[in-house]
Amino acid sequence: MDTMALVSVAAAVSRSRSQLFPRLLLFRKRIVSGVQPTGAIHLGNYLGAIKTWIELQNSYDTLFFIVDLHAITLPYDTQQLSKATRNTAAIYLACGVDTSKASVFVQSHVRAHVELMWLLSSATPIGWLNRMIQFKEKSRKAGDENVGVALLTYPVLMASDILLYQSDLVPVGEDQKQHLELTRELAERVNYLYGGRKWKKLGGRGGAIFKVPEPLIPPAGARVMSLTDGLSKMSKSAPSDQSRINLLDPKDVIANKIKRCKTDSFSGMEFDSPERPECNNLLSIYQLISGKTKEEVAQECQDMNWGTFKTLLTDALVDHLHPIQVRHEEIISDPAYLDGVLGEGATKAAAIADATLSNVYQAMGFLYR
User: Reaction catalysed by this chain (predicted)?
Assistant: First the structure.
């Protein structure tokens, strides 16, 4: 074959690949996830969610949003909500969420979330909501007089967040599995009540209205525990800031928190001992921050005392978080850039959400506008 023929073949292959690649993107499975802008984003949010997103965005169609509507289910500071929302968005980007691969937006900027929640509420049995563990726990702590209806119904909003985008997979920690199960049940219920032939008779395409999403639980880091209690999850709502490493904590604060964190009297370091929850938690954090395997960390740390290990962990945390903190400061100092990112993300998300919402209105028999 002569040179010109080879060039022609190469060009044809290149054209076929360029035509095929966009089609392959269309068939990527979709993932949606988000974090509330309440309190400081901490290591548990990062290792349990955001860090995982960075890997997922390379293989999936991803939408990551700041769930500000969920932030008002309990009493909150109205003066801080907007600032915290922007700060959370900046942390997403600083951690490595790539806007060329993922849509980043604010939940309340896509109004379809609230509209779909109302429609889904009409199909949600009250008994399903009464059994939700987090509602029972939070309402017991807050007291009936301080609990709004939103605390009971926010799992329906969470279902709306997921179903709006015809999500295939949802990254969840162990504590969110019950909410995702409700979402799956609700999707199946609405599909049964309004989908299939019933929808087709109303002029729709028929079939399922919603995809029924599957859980995606990371193999490690899905549940980072408190620094003061190895049996409790690291949480924004814990009264003591000493219980968590915040992503924007300065070097000296990180060092102080690790120095003072709860340990035990056993010698050496080991994973998975039921008698040593704090040891397992701190080793797991080091493993995830360092990027080493569990076996490598176990071998490296097995003969260390607590003082040596705490120094090692502190240095690893500071080194890992420093570039995130620097990038965050750059982003938060450029509000026009951040607003542009959020505006573009909301536009992309709304295009998907509005199509779903239109189908639901049609299937439920509303007058077409």
Answer: tRNA(Trp) + L-tryptophan + ATP = L-tryptophyl-tRNA(Trp) + AMP + diphosphate + H(+)
